[in-house]
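Sharing in case it's useful to others searching the archive later.

Someone asked me privately for the predicted structure of NAD(P)H-hydrate epimerase, so I'm posting the question and my answer publicly. Question first, with the sequence:
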Amino acid sequence: MYDNDSPIRLTRQQSRAVDRYAIEELGIPGVVLMENAGINAAGAVFDLLRDAFEFEVDEENARIAIVCGGGNNGGDGYVVARQLKCWGMSPVVYAVKPVGELTGDAKVMADAWVSVGGSVVEASEEAAVERVSGEWQVAHVVVDALLGTGYGVEKGGLRGATAAAVRAMAGLVEEDSDGGAEFRGRIVSLDVPSGMDADTGEVAGGTGGGASGGAVRADQTITFVAEKVGFGVAGAEKWLGRVVTADIGLPWDVVEAALAGLEGGPGGGA
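And my answer, the predicted structure tokens:
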């Protein structure tokens, strides 16, 4: 189910076109697509836990940190958290944007997470991220649900709590390689590693004025519908880790129909 065997790679525009077609032409609510994406991503996280830690980790003692941004990628993260809770785990969500300030589908999913008794730690300021990120050091899995395909390098460097969270996740790997505290867990990014441009494979660059560069260096990227064009760029693999694909509840012929109206047709992102 999660083997990455889709025949094309999608651009940012094509990814949006698939969602738009499902919502506007087929009448499938966006929250349904988000729910499907999150449930399938949760399955991939569960598989990773089982494969990486064998019998060391079970549902009761799995330590899972899910770092959620304020957009749809964060909404996916809240669904992942709720589904893992349904399977007997106790993930903790770290909210880079307060739940009360969310809008749209992301708010629906965050509210659903809170309604089922889900744990949320607010980390909406840099100092708060720095204070709580030590908890990620002991996690079996840290899920990066900060930024999705909407980020582009033309927007410049990352800022505020988002930048701090990306630095903290990058620091988990760097501390290990520099001889510091060993991070035995796995970092999983949803759709794309936060800070990576889905079209170009480039990562955020610091542009001054408090902005910072870099991206999350994932052990595994769970990408939705299909790989993104930027994944094929030389050097992107060091940020992506292993790439698996999770569907969003749309048969492939529906995806092709959504792409058919774009310039270049369904293969335009290959």
